[in-house]
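Please decode residue identities from the backbone states below.
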């Protein structure tokens, strides 16, 4: 499974490297529907397949790390996130859903959250057909990852990703193609993807959605960003996309006082201090 390590993590040591301390956060990204957890007849608003982030947090010692799980819905509304929180309200449920998402790319059907006759058939189907679905899901993801590796070898300037998600009785199959590149001496970063398929609950919605993010590095501390993000078509029938712009300013400092000192002046003082120590 392909995890993406987030920027800002650290592996630090003062002595033997096996005593290093970890502070790392990695993400496994997929798409899943909360209808896999809840009864789809009682909760039809949960049938949309949404982006899911499986978060893996590593801390403490390198040779014996502490591992914590988390599951996030980055684009969902607050009501949908509350449904997820109810489904992972203890460590056992969280671990089960995390591992099921990792292996099956879908949520685990929890019988404790069902009511009505629809639950029994879905849980039974999960039990009887789980091995076959597992084989298809794992093989499909493996082939998708291998195809992404081949496509990325076409050019060193582009990172190309391909992903195919099989459908089921709740959601349709999906094909996603992603492209990432850096231009103008890495000053411009472009990320985009096209998604074909999905569960078309809204008959007026297009089966093709596209997203992109452009980030321009103006200076070492100042960045400009433009994005276009697709919305959940179930709730956004008029406006299927959201656009936005932003400016980011980042500055590193060791003490609160140094925050108000210009970076050039701080470097000059540090250089002067080093020269004084050498004398």
């Amino acid at each position: 499974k392909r995890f993406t390590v987030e920027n800002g993590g650290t592996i630090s040591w003062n002595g033997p490297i096996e005593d290093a301390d970890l502070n790392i956060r990695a993400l496994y990204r997929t798409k899943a529907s909360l209808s896999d957890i809840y009864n789809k007849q009682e909760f039809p608003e949960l049938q949309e397949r949404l982006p899911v982030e499986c978060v893996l947090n590593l801390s403490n010692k390198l040779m014996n790390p502490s591992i914590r799980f988390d599951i996030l819905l980055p684009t969902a509304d607050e009501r949908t996130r509350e449904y997820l929180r109810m489904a992972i309200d203890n460590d056992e449920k969280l671990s089960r859903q995390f591992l099921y998402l990792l292996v099956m790319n879908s949520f685990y059907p929890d019988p404790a959250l069902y009511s009505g006759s629809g639950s029994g058939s879905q849980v039974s189907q999960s039990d009887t057909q789980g091995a076959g679905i597992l084989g298809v899901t794992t093989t499909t993801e493996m082939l998708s990852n291998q195809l992404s590796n081949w496509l990325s070898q076409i050019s060193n300037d582009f990172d190309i990703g391909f992903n195919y998600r099989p459908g089921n009785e709740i959601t349709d199959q999906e094909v996603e193609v992603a492209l990432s590149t850096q231009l103008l001496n890495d000053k411009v970063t472009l990320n985009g993807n096209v998604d074909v398929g999905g569960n078309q609950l809204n008959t007026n919605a297009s089966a093709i959605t596209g997203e992109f993010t452009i980030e321009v590095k103006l200076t070492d501390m100042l960045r400009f960003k433009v994005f276009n993000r697709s919305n959940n078509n179930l709730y956004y029938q008029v406006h299927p996309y959201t656009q936005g712009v932003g400016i980011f300013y980042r500055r590193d400092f060791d003490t609160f006082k140094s925050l108000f000192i210009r970076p050039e002046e701080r470097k000059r003082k540090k250089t002067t201090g080093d020269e004084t120590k050498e004398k």
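Observation: The longest strand covers residues 21-32.
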